Protein backbone atom coordinates (compact mmCIF):
# COMPACT_ATOMS: atom_id res chain seq x y z
CA UNK A 1 0.00 0.00 0.00
CA UNK A 2 1.49 3.35 -1.02
CA UNK A 3 0.10 5.08 2.07
CA UNK A 4 2.32 2.95 4.31
CA UNK A 5 5.56 3.63 2.40
CA UNK A 6 6.78 6.43 4.73
CA UNK A 7 6.32 4.12 7.71
CA UNK A 8 8.47 1.46 6.03
CA UNK A 9 11.20 4.00 5.25
CA UNK A 10 11.19 5.14 8.86
CA UNK A 11 11.48 1.58 10.14
CA UNK A 12 14.34 0.88 7.72
CA UNK A 13 16.10 4.08 8.80
CA UNK A 14 15.91 3.11 12.47
CA UNK A 15 16.96 -0.45 11.72
CA UNK A 16 20.10 0.56 9.81
CA UNK A 17 20.93 3.28 12.33
CA UNK A 18 20.80 0.76 15.18
CA UNK A 19 22.77 -1.73 13.09
CA UNK A 20 25.44 0.92 12.40
CA UNK A 21 25.70 1.86 16.08
CA UNK A 22 25.95 -1.77 17.18
CA UNK A 23 28.68 -2.42 14.61
CA UNK A 24 30.68 0.57 15.83
CA UNK A 25 30.28 -0.32 19.52
CA UNK A 26 31.33 -3.90 18.88
CA UNK A 27 34.43 -2.78 16.97
CA UNK A 28 35.35 -0.29 19.68
CA UNK A 29 35.01 -2.72 22.59
CA UNK A 30 36.46 -5.73 20.75
CA UNK A 31 39.90 -5.34 22.34
CA UNK A 32 41.10 -4.31 25.77
CA UNK A 33 42.53 -0.82 25.89
CA UNK A 34 44.21 -1.36 29.29
CA UNK A 35 46.61 -4.00 27.97
CA UNK A 36 47.71 -1.84 25.08
CA UNK A 37 48.23 1.17 27.34
CA UNK A 38 50.36 -0.89 29.75
CA UNK A 39 52.51 -2.16 26.88
CA UNK A 40 52.94 1.37 25.53
CA UNK A 41 53.96 2.70 28.96
CA UNK A 42 56.62 0.00 29.30
CA UNK A 43 58.02 0.87 25.90
CA UNK A 44 58.10 4.58 26.72
CA UNK A 45 59.71 3.99 30.14
CA UNK A 46 62.44 1.83 28.61
CA UNK A 47 63.44 4.47 26.07
CA UNK A 48 65.63 7.24 27.42
CA UNK A 49 65.14 10.44 25.54
CA UNK A 50 68.33 12.42 25.17
CA UNK A 51 67.70 15.91 23.90
CA UNK A 52 70.49 17.50 21.92
CA UNK A 53 70.00 21.23 21.79
TrEMBL record:
GO terms for molecular function: proton transmembrane transporter activity. The keyword Lipid metabolism does not apply. GO terms for biological process: proton motive force-driven ATP synthesis. It is a single-pass membrane protein. The keyword Mitochondrion applies. The chain crosses the membrane at residues 12-32. Keywords: CF(0), Hydrogen ion transport, Ion transport, Membrane, Mitochondrion, Transmembrane, Transmembrane helix, Transport. One of its GO terms (cellular component) is mitochondrial membrane. It is found in: Mitochondrion membrane. InterPro entries: ATP8_metazoa. It comes from the Eukaryota. It holds the Pfam family ATP-synt_8. Belongs to the ATPase protein 8 family. F-type ATPases have 2 components, CF(1) - the catalytic core - and CF(0) - the membrane proton channel. This is ATP synthase complex subunit 8.
